[in-house]
Predict the structure.
Amino acid sequence: MIPEKRKILITGASGLIGTILRKALMESYDLYGIDVEIITGFDCLVADMKDLSTIKHAFLGKDVVIDLAAIPDRDSPWEIIYQNNMVATYNTLEAARLTGVKRVIFASSNHTTGMYENDKPYSDIVNGNYEGLDPEDIPLIGIDSPLRPDGHYGVGKAFGECMGRYYSDTFGISVLCLRIGTLNKEGCPVETRQFSTLLTHPDLVQLVERCIEAPDDLEFGIYYGVSNNKWRFWDIANSRQEIGYNPEGNAESWRDG
């Protein structure tokens, strides 16, 4: 007997990350979406995530929600973050609670700790000043490092992580937060900083699959979404240990390109 595929709902399904995941996961899972845009050939509710009463029914019967719905601009003004992104995040978690969804995978951001990049050695690394630095001796920024958002966008994502922790502790929803690094349409570095922060498309897919398939008793987690770059300065030890994430990409592959 063929096992039934897990039902996965992707909010913000038309964006770059949503498009990559839809193409990569469609064979393994039953995929559904919510977006403000029509996605031809995809089962997607056209709705605004700010309207809880409209989107709630799309969560019924889903096993996992991948929450991507946000305006993904690190320079967005506070009004956008407050009125759009934070409301959409809250509505995702509340709709999951109301409909019995067991797991939410929240697209957080490396910008929750972006201010560290103003400090050495990170400021040198993101500017490509590697002289005198040993990539094996870089103090890594991890999930235990204090939050240091580098803008309102990062503040909004930190809010989402905190809200996820609350919903996990209070309502028993498994919430896994991904501090996504540089994920661009090219899938390779296009500027100096990205040699340390790149998340390749295959590594993104692997990270999300690991979260979908993680043990049911994994109640809450924060994981940096970054490839195995030589100059990576985010710690992924807990990602390896807790969900088995093993990134294969390395931005150095494009260094001479």
In short: The first helix runs from residue 16 to 25. The radius of gyration is 18 Å. The CA atoms of residues 36 and 47 lie 5 Å apart.
